[in-house]
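Handout for the seminar on molecular recognition.
Each group receives one record of this type.
Step one: identify the two inputs.
Step two: read the structure output and locate the region that could contact nicotinamide-adenine-dinucleotide.
Step three: write two sentences on what you found, then compare them with the reference statements printed after the record.
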Amino acid sequence: MSHSSISHAPAQAPSSPRHPFDLQGRVALVTGCNTGIGAGIAVALAQAGADIVGLNRSDASQTAAQVQALGRRFVPIQADLSRTEAMADVLAQVLAAAGQVDILVNNAGIIRRADALDFSEEDWDAVMNTNLKSLFFLSQAVARHMLDCAAQQGAQWRGGKIIHIASLLSFQGGVRVPSYTAAKSGVLGLTRLMANEWAAKGINVNAIAPGYIETNNTEALRQDAGRAGEILQRIPAGRWGQPADLGGAAVFLASSAADYVHGHTLAVDGGWLAR
Ligand code: NAD
C-alpha cells in the first residue's frame, strides 16, 4: 500500500460510532439510578461507552462509583420528580452541568398498594405524578432540547433516544395497584404518541417493560411467601430478574442499532407475557 493511499484513506468521523451498540460520546440522563433497575441501566449504558447524568432524590454515590470505575463520567443532579411543575428547571440544571443530553431513560417510579375499594386520592396522585406526569413533562423538556441540538448541529446531530420504563401492568390489570396500572398503561400509550410525533424529527421513543425484578419496588411481594411462590412458578425463565437483566435492552434502544425502532414497548420479563 502506498503512502498516499494511507494518507487519503477516509478518516472515521469522530462522532460516528464504531459499532452500532457503541455509546461513546453520548450523554445519558437516567432518573432514579441510585438503586434497582435505574442503577442496572446506568451501569450498562456506561459499559457501552456513555457518560451518565444521574437524576436522583437521594445520594447516588454507589452508582457513581460503578460508572466511574468503567472510565465514564457521572454527573449527579438532585431533583424530586413528585414535584411536577419544575421539569424545565430540572433540565436547565442538567444542561448546566452536562452540556447536552442524547439519551433519556425515564426510570424513576413508585408503587402504592391497596384494594381499589379503599384506594386514596393521595396514593393516586403520588403515583400518577411521579410515574406519568413527570415522565411526560421531562420528556417534553428533553425533546425540545434535542430538537435545539438538531437545529444547531445539522448533519452532525446523531439523533435522540428516549426510553421509558413501563411494566407488565402496561399490558395487564394487576390487583391492588390501581394508580400504578393506570400510570404504566399510560406510559405505553405515551410511548406510541411521542413516537408518532417525534420519529420523523430524529428522536426514537420506546419503552422497556420489566417483568418481576428483585428491587425495593417488589420487596413487599417477595416478603409474601405465597405470592412470591405463585409468581416464580409462572415465570418461564424460572427465576426473578435482576436489574442487570435490563441492561441489554436499554443499550440496544439507546444505540444506533435501534434507529428504525419507534413506539415499541419491549418486555424483558423472563417470558411472563408469553405464558
Ligand atoms: P426502586 O424502588 O429500587 O427504584 C425506584 C427509583 O425511583 C429509585 O431510584 C427512587 O429514588 C426513584 N424515585 C422514586 N420517586 C422519585 C422522585 N419523586 N424523584 C426522584 N426519584 C424518585 O424500584 P425499581 O424496581 O428499580 O423501579 C424502577 C422502575 O422500574 C420504576 O419505574 C418501576 O415502576 C419500574 N418497574 C419495576 C419492576 C420490578 O419488578 N422491580 C417491574 C416493572 C417496572
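Reference statements: The chain has one domain: 19-274. The beta strands are 27-31, 51-56, 74-78, 103-106, 160-165, 203-210, 265-268.
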